[in-house]
Amino acid sequence: MTQPTRVPAEVTLPELTFRGVLLGALITVIFTASNVFLGLKVGLTFSSAIPAAVISMSVLRLFKDANILENNMVQTQASAAGTLSSIIFILPALVMMGHWQGFPFWQTLGICAAGGMLGVMFTIPLRHVMVVQSDLPYPEGVAAAEILRVGSAERAQDAAEDAGRAPAKAATGMGDIVAGGLASAAVSFAASGLRVLGDSVSGWFALGGAVFRLPMGFSLALLGAGYLIGIVAGLAMLTGLVISWGIAVPVLSAMGDMPAGQSLAQYATGLWSSQVRFIGAGVIGVGAIWTLATLFMPMARGVKASFAALGKAGAAGAGSAPRTERDLSAGWISAVTLVLVAVLVVTFQVFLSGAPLSAAAIWKLVAYAVLFAFVFGFLVAAACGYMAGLVGSSTSPISGVGIVAIVLVSLLMLALGGELLSVENGVQMAIALSIFSTSAVVAVASISNDNLQDLKTGWLVGATPWRQQVALLIGCVAGAAVISPVLELLYNAYGFADALPRADMDPAQALSAPQATLMLAIARGIFTHQLNWSMILIGMAVGVGLILVDQVLMRTCRVARIPVLAVGIGIYLPPTVAAPIVAGAVLAWLLERALRRRAAAAGKPYEQFADAPNRRGVLIASGLIVGESLVGVLMAAIIGATGSDAPLAIAGEDFAPTASYLGLAVFVFVAVLFWRRVLKLA
């Protein structure tokens, strides 16, 4: 049966319904919690558009009057909320530095909701040029539209076949998400709850004075994340691992002397944590600046053309435009933006209310912070929207944008915050204000990164843009309301790197929160003039070298590329975290090769032959991420309620070596099952 292409502009269907908003809010809780946990653990989040579309379809098909546009609104809302969790790339730094003892609900809600909703407002003028007229690929947006179309076609087929007998329900893909989720949830519970499976293993070797490490982690969520990012980014992260643990740590360990009483592991890990990670920071910073620089001119042209189109639409009158071309009006955009700026002003004023400053000085700092968040946020919105359309939301460098923002706002506060810096604990407050200001920018960037993908999905299926933009605003509020409680829960259960809420907690179980740790180190270094510039400069030089190699490869191979940001993340992440991501990327590559061989043997085009298996792989990988993440949140609740680090453990410390081998065996077994389930459709 031919699939529906696009709902015509003259056809009006229910879109933004109460049940859809309620379902979107429920999915929001799942994906926001999952992304917060994954981001704090490994510094990565995943695009929730595709799994949200599948879940929405599976639930709404129970209602006879549901339609493709209502499904689209649900996935739009849930996708926006899940994406807003990128705020954890910076916000936990306030707890790490001791400025916050937890996550105040109203301040967290204010900065997340206002920043995210500004991201929606900033990207509305970009829709016409960057979505309707552009040839940008928008990978997640196109994929989500295809899933909605397939589901709509299956629903129509079911209705046609319903002639006195039960309709034959075709698979939506929900079973693949559930299968992946149950598998990773069971393994995660056995590892983090019962402690009968290990979560990593490492081999340590010394050649002369040089220390080497061969790491491997067994997280199924990271296997799924690696599958989604693909082989190019995976090999880039492997390059980062080699740079950090095959070159930098061995060189530094050979140049120094291991202190008495320390093991190889303690010595090498200390060098990596205190020095090598700053090489990664330098690489990430250069990669972020390069990405923004290369996109500046097309972004500027897009913004100019979009505002021109918006002005023409406003002059012609909203009522004269077809349903599929009606954005929120310029009046509504202006009014909502002013309200959001007011919310930011109040939020920053509350944040600074405890500072030992005069009222005039506080309001001046509030003005600086809000102006920076607004102006830089607008520029970032356009850049991130373009980057998401070009490379996809999952690989767009939000953390890199955050690094640029924290440097700029820290330098701004250093130059303009004279009165603040002169009072007692003023430097600490200035660092905190810089982090809080950057949080608003990251919220704007993350939502901008996702919105145009959703608007692309809506345009492909024939949605009404202004209704979709309202759904995005609702998603921002729903996601912002979830983030604070989840952060509070995870912090009290696991703690963050160098920030444990209780003295008796196990540092090995702490969530690494890599981006927040890095941004705090950068802000502190700028204000105290103690930044590890030697390692950062080495990292910047490495980043420039990688960019040059990447440009050469682009002009010669046209296939092999080196994403500089991914290399930096590979250097910066703990190696047992990066390794399973690389394994997932290799699994995706091997599956692609197998599917290409089978397509050639069958005499069919690869894209047509591999469409269903590739969709199944994406859904299983998403399920792996969601299952482990939700178990992590559940275990956080249990740990917080009992006050014990391992309340459900049935194995002691002496079982750890055996648990590591069992963990490896289960990891390989699940990867094989993944392989077989995907190829089953080929």
Automatic annotation (TrEMBL):
<feature type="transmembrane region" description="Helical">
    <location>
        <begin position="565"/>
        <end position="591"/>
    </location>
</feature>
<dbReference type="Pfam" id="PF03169">
    <property type="entry name" value="OPT"/>
</dbReference>
<feature type="transmembrane region" description="Helical">
    <location>
        <begin position="276"/>
        <end position="297"/>
    </location>
</feature>
<dbReference type="InterPro" id="IPR004814">
    <property type="entry name" value="Oligopep_transpt"/>
</dbReference>
<dbReference type="InterPro" id="IPR045035">
    <property type="entry name" value="YSL-like"/>
</dbReference>
<dbReference type="GO" id="GO:0035673">
    <property type="term" value="F:oligopeptide transmembrane transporter activity"/>
</dbReference>
<feature type="transmembrane region" description="Helical">
    <location>
        <begin position="21"/>
        <end position="38"/>
    </location>
</feature>
<feature type="transmembrane region" description="Helical">
    <location>
        <begin position="204"/>
        <end position="228"/>
    </location>
</feature>
<feature type="transmembrane region" description="Helical">
    <location>
        <begin position="429"/>
        <end position="449"/>
    </location>
</feature>
<feature type="transmembrane region" description="Helical">
    <location>
        <begin position="659"/>
        <end position="679"/>
    </location>
</feature>
<keyword id="KW-1133">Transmembrane helix</keyword>
<feature type="transmembrane region" description="Helical">
    <location>
        <begin position="330"/>
        <end position="353"/>
    </location>
</feature>
<feature type="transmembrane region" description="Helical">
    <location>
        <begin position="470"/>
        <end position="491"/>
    </location>
</feature>
<feature type="transmembrane region" description="Helical">
    <location>
        <begin position="235"/>
        <end position="256"/>
    </location>
</feature>
<keyword id="KW-0812">Transmembrane</keyword>
<protein>
    <recommendedName>
        <fullName>OPT oligopeptide transporter protein</fullName>
    </recommendedName>
</protein>
<dbReference type="InterPro" id="IPR004813">
    <property type="entry name" value="OPT"/>
</dbReference>
<keyword id="KW-0813">Transport</keyword>
<feature type="transmembrane region" description="Helical">
    <location>
        <begin position="75"/>
        <end position="97"/>
    </location>
</feature>
<feature type="transmembrane region" description="Helical">
    <location>
        <begin position="44"/>
        <end position="63"/>
    </location>
</feature>
<feature type="transmembrane region" description="Helical">
    <location>
        <begin position="103"/>
        <end position="124"/>
    </location>
</feature>
<feature type="transmembrane region" description="Helical">
    <location>
        <begin position="398"/>
        <end position="417"/>
    </location>
</feature>
<dbReference type="GO" id="GO:0016020">
    <property type="term" value="C:membrane"/>
</dbReference>
<feature type="transmembrane region" description="Helical">
    <location>
        <begin position="534"/>
        <end position="553"/>
    </location>
</feature>
<feature type="transmembrane region" description="Helical">
    <location>
        <begin position="177"/>
        <end position="198"/>
    </location>
</feature>
<feature type="transmembrane region" description="Helical">
    <location>
        <begin position="365"/>
        <end position="386"/>
    </location>
</feature>
<keyword id="KW-0472">Membrane</keyword>
<feature type="transmembrane region" description="Helical">
    <location>
        <begin position="618"/>
        <end position="639"/>
    </location>
</feature>
